[in-house]
User: What shape does this take?
Amino acid sequence: MPRTKIAGIGFHVPERVVTNEELTQWMETSNEWIIERTGIEERRYAKKYVETPTTLAAKAATIALERAGISKEEVDFIIFATLSPDYYFPGCGVLLQRELGITNTSCGALDIRNQCSGFVYGLSVADQFIKSGMYKNILLVGAEVHSMGLDYTTQGRNVTVIFGDGAGAVVLQPTEEEGKGILTTKLHSNGDYAEKLCFISPGSHCGYHQSHQDAEVDYGFDPDLDLGGMFITQKMVDDGLLYPYMDGQFVFKFAVQKFPEVIKEMLEEVQLPTSAINMFIPHQANLRITQFVQRLLRLSDDQVWSNIQKYGNTTAASIPIALCEAWEAGKVKDGDLVAIAAFGSGFTWGGALIRW
Ligand code: UT7
Assistant: This one.
């Protein structure tokens, strides 16, 4: 059976840099607080009405396709991971197909809704399709524009300061080269904590989630209205309820357990020690999480790539952006063992081991 290799990789981030200092104009926060708790120094924000997850993804994908040496018409499957899609529906997969000008309608398009783990989930799905022989050139992207949907008041500061915009893309192909390619992928989930990191409204929940949350929220629903009209209410808008929510400390505690767990699980399967990892690319959630995991796994600074300082947390885009940067910097070379791992909303988490 062939293995799956990354044949091309690219990333693209918006030009606009937003420093921590700039955020202090809108909310009570400080450069010192953000750096101390997260390691983030700046992030990128998309140009409104011009840059969307799809347009950022198209730029990253164009670079990845060129590096893979294939034309856009040779792409036989698109996988798009994002939590900030251009539209509620249709998904970004088809929008990317159009944006790239792919006219081949035999190309399928799949959208992945796994937030921070979206890229890892996408990679695992792509791996199965390639190994089964169904597809030969899969374009997998992770792209986010968070800046459109954040609460820039002090109320939203714990979430807003963390996130940034960007996109990363890979082209996946089969390889028969001995020992090369994706060695294993692992996927996990635990829905018990769905509301610990979430973006609930607007949505079709009709207040359903309240039984899973501590606090009762008045969304201004009319319970006697059984013909819709509750997807978004004026009260949601007036009360600022249309933003992401995160119980930061709770998520942090889970993340620092699950990253090392999944790495160890993968290494055990392929019977390699942690010292065999040449480069660990974690989802860039928080520099403190990465440093904690690094210490626990006893990895040296040379074995770990962090770029959250420059881009913040770009959820589904963070791993392909970091992987691409590490590769461009010559830190991921032929034959290297690359470990990637992600944890996030859901909760979902997972990882992949790749022999480059
Ligand atoms: O990528 C998906 C997975 N996400 C994560 O892995 C994120 C995990 N969590 C975290 O990274 C951290 O929990 C945060 C960076 C979000 C928050 O750091 P923390 O050390 O857990 O802070 P906290 O939420 O416990 O808040 C401590 C204090 C609070 O003030 P009081 O109650 O002690 O007076 C917050 O109101 O810091 C305050 N605070 C802020 N102060 C200045 C919260 N956000 C900010 C802010 N600027 N941006």
Summary: The domain at 3-175 is CATH 3.40.47.10 (Peroxisomal Thiolase; Chain A, domain 1). The radius of gyration is 20 Å. The longest helix spans residues 248-270. The longest strand covers residues 3-12.
